[in-house]
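Page 42, continued from yesterday. The earlier attempt failed because a stray header line got pasted into the input along with the sequence. Redoing it now with the clean sequence only.
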Amino acid sequence: MKLLSILTLAVSGATALLSERSPCAIDTHGPFKLYSVSDGTDGAALLNVVTMGPDDSGKNTLSTLTTCDTCGKTPVYWTLTKSVLSPVFTTSDIVTQNATINLPLSYGKVNFITGNKKDLKLAPIYCLDKNTTSTSTASHILLANGHSDLFSICSFIGTIGPAHRRDVYYNQTSSGIANYCVSTKLVAKPL
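This time it went through. Structure tokens are written below.
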């Protein structure tokens, strides 16, 4: 009887978790521009990618998503291919051996890795859904792991890091930087 109670509790808990996630409507789309639209702001901030340095192997480059308009590089456009998010910086990015793709998420910064296409491990966690808060029917909301409501724009004010940057975080609720975050939606506008 005790085992049955534990199994029932486990199943009902898993069902509750699943019900909080949104279904992924679109797993492949592009090209589009990616913007951050934060609560309490009037406009949308175009998202850029800032290089952070090499990964542990030394072969690949790590980068993070930011709203800083004087930092990093602005992709010409973004693509979503089988739930993998990729910034495209030049048309030569498409034909070279290198690619930039998203890394897995649990909490913390929204990061990407650049390296040889055949060596990169895919993390298919993103999708797009209709933007029900916009009057424009052309835009979509980006979801990660089925959630669009766990993204934040966080500043480094009061912490170690560049104070002028406002980076995109996912599920950032428990660290010191969480005190300097504003909830945001990531919006994809097709080109």
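Notes: The first strand starts at residue 29 and ends at 38.
Reminder to self: strip header lines before submitting.
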